[in-house]
Amino acid sequence: MPAIATTNPATGETVKTFAAATDAQVDAAITLAAARFADYRRTDFAQRARWMHATADLLEAEADAVAALMTLEMGKTLASAKAEALKCVKGFRFYADHAEELLADEPADPAAVNASKAFARWQPIGIVLAVMPWNFPLWQAVRFAAPALMAGNVGLLKHASNVPQTALYLADVLSRGGFPEGCFQTLLIGSGAVERILRDPRVAAATLTGSEPAGRSVAAIAGDEVKHTVLELGGSDPFIVMPSADLAGAVRTAVTARVQNNGQSCIAAKRFIVHTDVYDQFVSEFTALMSALRVGDPTDPNTDVGPLATEQGRDEVAEQVDVAVAAGATIRCGGKRIERPGWYYPPTVITDITRDMALFTEEVFGPVASVYRAADIDEAIEIANASPFGLGSNAWTRDQAEISRFADEIEAGQVFINGMTVSYPELPFGGIKRSGYGRELSGHGMREFCNLKTVWVA
Question: Does the keyword Chaperone belong to this entry (predicted)?
Answer without folding.
Answer: no
